[in-house]
Write a structure and sequence with these properties.
The chain is α+β, with helices and mostly antiparallel strands and 160 residues long. It is built from four helices and eight strands; from the N terminus they run αββββααβββαβ. This is GerMN domain-containing protein.
């Protein structure tokens, strides 16, 4: 009976060691669109868009709502580039929209102290945009950038 207990304890010890080795592995891999990527290389980024399903009356033009996206690089610049790309098809189905005109590109981006300085390729205002569009564009950019520590102000210029 003593031999049985010793054998049982050895098996339990081996299982515990195997479990510890498996759970300690941080390099779990997954396949994404034919590419093998490490899950640890993916970060979550918040982008802010308007949402026709969440807005209540009276409408506050500056209200924007976060959408989470998985990206390989989470930075201020990459967040702006993602934002300028607009909502994905799935996000649009869920009521999300951008007040920023399609086709606007980020030409220059730098951080000067606590101020993010953004230079866009063209006017981000839609052709029929008004004060409400202007407030929403500002809010989309501000909220997207303020997820990064140290950014308090934003300056936007446009190449004419």
């Amino acid at each position: 009976m003593n031999k049985f207990l010793v054998g049982f304890l050895i098996i339990i010890a081996i299982l515990i060691v195997l479990w510890a080795v498996y759970t300690a592995s941080d390099t779990k891999e997954e396949f994404v669109e034919g590419e093998q990527t490490r899950r640890e290389d993916i970060e979550t980024l918040a982008l802010y868009f308007g949402n026709s399903r969440k807005m209540d009356l009276p409408i506050d033009c500056g209200w924007v709502y976060p959408v989470e996206r998985e990206v390989k690089e989470k930075s201020e610049r990459s967040s702006l580039e993602e934002l300028l790309g607009g909502p994905s098809g799935e996000e649009e189905k869920n009521g999300y929209f951008s007040a920023i005109k399609k086709g606007v590109q980020l030409e220059e981006f730098l951080i000067d102290g606590k101020t993010a300085k953004i230079r866009l390729s063209s006017d981000p205002m839609p052709d029929l945009g008004g004060l409400c569009s202007k407030a929403m564009i500002k809010s989309q950019i501000e909220q997207t950038l303020k997820q990064f520590p140290g950014i308090e102000d934003i300056e936007i210029t446009v190449i004419n």
